[in-house]
Each structure stands twice: as C-alpha cells, then as structure tokens.
Amino acid sequence: MDEEMNVQLLYFDGCPNWGLARERLRRALAHVGHPEIEVELVVVGTEARARELRFPGSPTIRVNGRDPFDHGEAFGLACRVYPSPEGLTGAPTVEALVRELTDV
Predict the structure, then answer these.
(1) Kind of pairing between the strands at 7-11 and 39-43
(2) Domain 7-102 has CATH 3.30.2310
(3) pTM: predicted TM-score of the whole model, two decimal places
(4) What is the pLDDT, as a whole number, of residue 4?
C-alpha cells in the first residue's frame, strides 16, 4: 500500500449516510494498518459541481482519485447505495472497503 495514499469522502449536506461511510472507512483504514491516514471530506453543494467532480452520489469514496465502487452511475446530488450481504446499504461495508484499500 502506498504511504502517500489519498482518501476522499465526497457527500452532499444532508446525506443521511456520509457519517456511516466515514466511520466504516476509518475502521477499514485501521484494519489495513493505516489509521493515521486523514480522510479528506469534500462537500458537493450543487448539481453543476456534482457534474464537474463526476460525483455519482453520496457518499462517494475515492482512493488516489479513483472510485473503487464505480458502476457507471449518472452524476448528481443523489443518494448512492452499495451492495452488502444483507442487501443494499447506504455506505460500503468495512469488508468491502478493506478489500479495496488492500488492492491499492
């Protein structure tokens, strides 16, 4: 894993799941041995900014500029869902995040 890893959490104000995503991301970073990595929070405030940032919905996690959960969603201020063993959820699971952070 790259010591210079950059991790961003993009969300819109009022998103009900960004806090859960942040907590799961912190747990995943600790699990892969990098609890010191700061997660950059990026608030996306307008549809124009969403398109500019290629923001497929909230919350979106980017590792070194790449969205590991990209499935070709449209860009905009919308809630995003992620698959989990229990069905769709509003944030990636810790296990999914660990897999993606390990593959960096």
Answers:
(1) parallel
(2) no
(3) 0.91
(4) 79
